Amino acid sequence: MTRPELEVSRWRSVWRQLPLLIALVALWLFLWDHIDALTIVTGVLLAVAVTRVLYLPPVLLSGRFNPWRGLLLGLRMMFDVVVASLQVAFFAVNPRWQPMNAIIAVQLLTRSDLVTTLTAEAISVVPGTVVVDIDRERGLLYLHALGTRTPADIDRVRHHVLGTEERIVLAIGTGAQAASIRAARRERRAGITPARRGSTPDRSQDGGPS
């Protein structure tokens, strides 16, 4: 790669990191009760230090946002939170309900750190499920889920996670990620499950491995 190409690539990386830098500066300003030049300068310096000096994996934003998909993502998350809250409340007051929970491994369809993080956060926000570990190298989410008494319940949780990832990618992911997600969705509708593609997620219940 020639020097001009390196310069273009470097500036492209900075441009994609700009929203993250702005968000970090805004977070720093929220911690103070006033805004002045010194606060802004220190916020910028800290944001650059966090993204450049500390050893962190690069978080490159796609530079793409679909407002319609973003709206659908927000509405679906609100719907899931309401429904899951009612289900957990019913479990809590139902004397006949006996807990049967599971640790489920879900193979994500993308390898983006940003998409993985947002998917984990979105899953953890919904009552009844919480992400307990992430295998970044293999793109695996390990989550604890309530009410997983049958294999069908486990499949339902896994499809919910993949559906959340799909909505996030279609809202903010790159064009290539969106195309990959759509292809995976067509495969699922055609009956090609992750297990048939060679993935064998692990499952264990609270009492030990199944």
From TrEMBL:
Ranges annotated as biased composition (Basic and acidic residues): 199-210
The protein's name: Multisubunit sodium/proton antiporter MrpE subunit
Transmembrane segments: 14-31, 38-55, 75-93
Similarity comment: Belongs to the CPA3 antiporters (TC 2.A.63) subunit E family.
Record NCBIfam families: PRK08965.1-5 (NF006521)
Coiled-coil segments: none
GO molecular function, one term: monoatomic cation transmembrane transporter activity
UniProt-annotated stretches for the region Disordered: 184-210
Keyword hit for Amino-acid biosynthesis: no
InterPro entries hit by this protein: Cation_antiport_E
Keywords from the named record: Cell membrane, Membrane, Transmembrane, Transmembrane helix
Compartments where located: Cell membrane
Pfam name, any one: MNHE
Organism: Agromyces ramosus
This protein's GO CC annotations: plasma membrane
Membrane topology qualifier: Multi-pass membrane protein
Keyword Repeat: no
